[in-house]
Every structure is written in structure tokens, then in C-alpha cells.
Amino acid sequence: MKVVLVCSYRLPRMIVTGLSRFFAYAGYWLNSKNSQTVLTNLKLCFPALEKRERRTLARQVVAESALMYGEVVDAWMGSKQEIESKIFEINGQNILEECRQAEKPIIVAVPHIGNWEYFWHWLQLNYTAISMYSPAKFDLLDEVMFKARTKFGGKPFATDPKGIMGLLRALKKGGIMMILPDQAPREGAGVYTPFFGYPAYTMTLLHKFIGKTGAQLLFGSCIRLKDGKGFSINIEKADFPFEKREIDPFNLAMNQQIEKIIERNPEQYQWSYKRFKRQSNGITPYQ
What we know:
Main location: membrane
Organism: Aliikangiella coralliicola
Number of strands: 9
Strand order of the largest sheet: 1-9-8-2-5-3-4
Protein name: Lipid A biosynthesis acyltransferase
Subcellular location: Cell inner membrane
Shape: globular
Oligomer: single chain
GO molecular function: acyltransferase activity
Order of helices and strands: HHHHHHEHEHEHEHEEEHEEH
Helix content: 40-55%
Number of helices: 12
Largest sheet: 7 strands, mixed
């Protein structure tokens, strides 16, 4: 696995992107499991769209996702200079700086849109960045991932109780925490909350972190620019009152803000993720 990543990193980007596009489109036209998941998610989240419109959006999703492999390879293997050269715009950094002046913990919720690996790199290059970390299934891949996510000073914490306690301490000491709020949590760690109008098992952890630390909540995204050559880092305030709020209204408002972020660039969202796989009736919408 590591050899494949190194070879991909050293190959001309045009070749890597071309191969990624070939396999991505082949999977779409052959109706792969991945493309079925994309189409199912689009049908659940955009029921007002006609079938033809969903197909058009699905092809756009495939085109964007085909860029991900090469981008992630560059993110994991690239130097500081290479990473910084890909970040063309930074919008809302003043919001983050204002929060730092308040001397309260800060949590940035970053949905699976664009390329969140570059948002993490930007954060760890500029701040004391902390996050949660689940090891990859393969040891060699995990080694590469962990090295990438710590090489610019960032500190990931394990998702076990010891790691959670360490993360809370680091947050209270001034670390800026990045969290992926639209990831389906393990059983017992979430509640059902509408996401684009469909029930989604949504994490309670973010709500608990804010309750325990009094952290300020921001939202972030790293959006791929139209020419495919770089990214735009975006930071915005939570558009809802999040302090001392009960879990159900908190999660509903959080999901609604994530929806707004997605609606700006729906083709860049990770629709291949089975966000609705766990349902209260035990019936999955996926084949």
C-alpha cells in the first residue's frame, strides 16, 4: 500500500487524474455499488429533482470524486511548500482570530465536502490543531495516515476513553479541534436527526464537547476551485445559538447548517458515504 502511494505521488498528476477518472466513470456506467450509493443518497436528499437531473448531478459527483485520490496522495506525501501552494483562498480566518481573542476553546466542524485533508493541513500549519483519530484497517496505510496528520504539528487523539480525555484537556488548554460532524457514529453514540429531511443517525459527541468545555463552535470547509488546481479554505460562525442547548434542537440546527454548506457545492460532497445506513426500523435504504 505504501509503495502504491509513493508511486502515485511521483507519477505526473495528469496520469494519476486520468486513471482515477477512468475507474470512476467505469464504476458509474457499470452501476457499481459506489455509484448506486451516490444515486440513492441524491434521491433521498433531493427528492424534488427529476431522475434526469439526479443523473446529471451524479456524473458531476463522479467527476469531482475522481480528483480525490491524487489530492489525498499529495496531501499525505507532500511537503509544507507543496501543501501551501494548493491553498489559494482563505475566507473567514478573521472569525477564527476573533474567537481566539475570547480565550475560550474552539471547535471547527468540517463536513465531508471538497477535501477535508487540506483543511486539516491548513489548521495544523497555522494553529495548535487537535482532532479525533480512528486507525485504518491496514497497518501500513495507518502509518502513512498518522504520519501525514501529525507532520505539521497536529495532534490526533484516539477515539477510546483515554483519547477522549486527552482531547478534552488539549481543548481546554487552547487547542483548536477539528471534527467531522456528518460521520455516522457507532451505535449508542448518536440520535436520529433529519438530514435533508431524511433520518440520519447523528453524533452526540460534538454537543457533549461544547457542554463540557464551553467551546465556541465554527464551521469550516475546503472547497475545490473550478480549475481543479487548488482549494478555498472557508470558516463561518454557527448560525444558531449552540450554548446550553438540548441535543435534539442542537443537532437539527447543526445538520441544517451543514446542508447549507453542501448546497453551495453539492457536486463536491461525499455522496458515496452511506450516511443513512443505520435506521431505527433496521431497514437500510441501500442495496
